[in-house]
Specification:
323 residues; Multidrug efflux transporter AcrB transmembrane fold; Alpha-Beta Plaits; two-stranded parallel sheet; 60% helix; elongated
Amino acid sequence: MEIIKTDTKIDFMRYRKVALIISAIVLLAGVTALVGRGLNFGLDFTGGTLIEVGYPEAPELADVREALVQDGFDDFTVQTFGTARDIVVRIPVGEVDETGADLSTRVLEALQRQTPDIDMRRVEFVGPQIGQELAEQGGLALLYALIGILLYVSFRFQWRFAVGAVGALVHDVLLVVGLLALFQVNFDLTVVAAILAVIGYSLNDTIVVYDRMRENFRVKRKGTPEELCNLSINQMLGRTIMTSLTTLMVLMALFYFGGEIIHAFAFTLIIGVIVGTYSSIYIAGSLALFMGVSKQDLMPVEKEGADQPDTEVLPERFRNREA
């Protein structure tokens, strides 16, 4: 049973300018949120102490904050974690002199004065120097990944394809990070791992489309680059949609049933898969065409006496359409 037809004839490149405008608008909104609100960095990057406390019944967050203020805490955040009975207290570095066990004991005692039947679930402490190193290493990991991709695609295909692939990946990363800033999703090391996974996922989809474009550029003697790009995307459309849908099904289950601790990870991947699928169809191909990729760039050197390539004609829908 064929769920998605393999002979679709959608003229994607006809709307590439509209797609680029939409991407520019969404990117502008994301960058504005990134500059204006900033990322909601977790303790992995800011440093500090995280204390998770379990209550027998859901408490009022205002009462929890009041108990901590009465004990001398000023700079802290209190929020639910998973269920309404699980409370997380985050205290940044420099708020108090105590760290680790001493600080967690003080917080627990302050909350037990208000509600005796509570228990400590976990305590995490990250020093400021470690947080700074993690932030630097996370940024370098993203930079090295993009540089490696640029070199690989240049070697594997052609430098115009490499620029298009890296441009699509930069588009994906900026869009995902902008949405994380817009929704103030907790940004920690698991989110960095999710962004790196998004880069790999998006690149894989882009490489599949580029490989099909290269083959069509070499085999089909007739057709403009826009027509050949359209043909290549349509030939791989079924594979792209089925891969994205099955991946999203797993990520949605992970998001809803995986627990609060991996919500940010799953949310980042969900956004990344959607954006990566979109960019592999519109952004990567459009950027390669914008860079001027042509059949001459991809045609192999013909040997004397070699058979001539196939002269199959493109479907009429892809011929003589506006770019």
